[in-house]
Amino acid sequence: MAKSKSIYSREYGVFLDLLREEREAAGLTQIGLAKKLKETQTYVSKCERGERRIDTIETRKFCIAIGLHYPAFAAKLEAAIEQKAAAKKPAARR
C-alpha cells in the first residue's frame, strides 16, 4: 500500500497553532482579522484549520493585520518548532 502524501506536517500544525494564538492574543476574532485582511471569515477559518495552506507573503499579511512584526513571528515559530521536536525525543537512558 502506498503511503499517502500530505501537505500538513507537524511543523505546519505548530505554525497554525501559533498563528491562531497570536490572533487571539491580539484580541481579534476571525471576523475581525478577516476585515483587516479584506477577506472573509471563512478564508481565515480555512487558513487556521489547514484547509487552505498559506504562503510566506500571506503569513506576512496576517502578521501585519494582527499587529505582529513578521520577523518576531518567525522567531516564535522557530522556537515553537524546536520545543515540539525536543518534546518528541525520548529521554536518554542512564
TrEMBL record:
Domain of life: Bacteria
Matching InterPro entries: Cro/C1-type_HTH (IPR001387), Lambda_DNA-bd_dom_sf (IPR010982)
Single GO MF annotation: DNA binding
Record-annotated HTH cro/C1-type domain positions: 19-73
Protein name: Ribosome-binding protein aMBF1 (Putative translation factor)
UniProt source species: Silvibacterium bohemicum
